[in-house]
Design goal:
Layout lengths: L1 H9 L9 E5 L2 E4 H9 L3 H7 L2 H24 L5 H37 L5 H10 L5 E2 L2 E9 L2 H12 L4 H8 L11 E5 L6 H8 L6 E7 L2 E11 L2 E2 L2 H27 L6 H13 L11
Antiparallel strand pairs: 1-2, 3-8, 4-5, 4-7, 6-7
């Protein structure tokens, strides 16, 4: 399978000739090798290699490896039985990874075909689903509230008494609230959506109109006095704004149904005990990567 797929891929385009960019020992270092190594690096390090100093450090690391490899040949390290065994295991792992990569190419192309023939979603389907599920594609009601948080019910009742006597809410919040984040702002929590705060708080605030003050509200954080200062109504998002999300959702549903049918046509069995043993063994094994030629 690997050989056949490689032949199919190489038949599509003429390989680009490699160009030597450096030499360490007897073997050249080519531009293709540099590109391959760069692509395997984390994105953050790739940015470093864009600089002149980064390029020098990167090439120095490759040259160091080549010099160590030349010494390995002189010492006959690659002829030692235990080393040959480790190299054989590494080669087998690389062949498996190559096959996985080639399979990914086949999977990607097949999914493109399936999307056209089996899981494609029409504009009419997108529009119908959007119309039938308005709650999924609307911004919920947003509430703005301020609160005074204290440690006991008696303290909360005292705060209510002072508010009813004419003390301004924001002034009292700065004075007595134990919420270190909102107290300096007069208790202001800004706007929040359902689910952003604890449910007892949200339920109490939901019963208030803007400008109204609650009674004492107990939550896991202590005792609150709440004042609602604003409310934004729910607002539907335009179809154009959510079209990609709707299409993706419908494609996923169709693909799940396609997979269910495929599982019936091609029975799948999984040996969970064998999977557990294989995963634990793989995770316990030392990494297969190199050392970067550091001593």
């Amino acid at each position: 399978l690997v050989a056949a797929t490689l032949l199919a891929l190489t038949a599509c385009a003429k390989p680009k000739a490699e160009r030597m960019v450096a030499k360490g020992g007897r073997d050249p270092i080519t531009d293709m090798e540099v590109a391959s190594r760069l692509q395997r690096l984390p994105a953050s390090y790739q940015e470093v290699v864009r600089t002149a100093d980064g390029q020098k450090e990167f090439m120095d690391s490759i040259v160091r490896e080549r010099l160590v490899l030349q010494k390995a040949r002189e010492l006959g390290v690659d002829k030692r039985p235990e080393v040959k065994e480790r190299m054989a295991r590494a080669r087998k792992l690389l062949e498996r990874r190559l096959e996985d990569t080639l399979n990914e190419v086949l999977i990607t192309e097949t999914l493109r075909e399936i999307r056209k023939s089996d899981i494609g979603v029409t504009d009419a389907e997108v529009s119908a689903f959007y119309d039938q599920h308005p709650e999924r594609y609307s911004n919920p009601v947003e509430t703005r509230a301020s609160h005074i948080l204290v440690g006991t019910e008696a303290e909360a009742q005292g705060a209510l008494t002072r508010l009813r006597a004419g003390t301004k809410f924001d002034v009292l919040a700065r004075e007595v609230s134990k919420d270190p984040t909102t107290a300096p702002k007069g208790g202001d929590l800004s706007y929040y959506k359902p689910g952003d705060l604890v449910s007892d708080f949200e339920q109490a605030a939901a019963s208030l109109k803007p400008g109204q003050v609650s009674g004492v509200v107990k939550t896991q954080f202590g005792y609150h006095v709440i004042r609602v200062t604003g409310r934004r109504p729910a607002k539907s998002r335009a179809l154009k704004e959510v079209e990609a999300d709707v299409r993706q959702h419908l494609e996923r549903e169709k693909f799940d149904r396609w997979l269910a049918k495929a599982r019936i046509a091609i029975p799948v069995t999984i040996d969970e005990a064998a999977v557990k043993q294989a995963t634990q063994g793989a995770l316990a094994a030392p990494p297969a990567g190199g050392t970067g030629a550091h001593p």
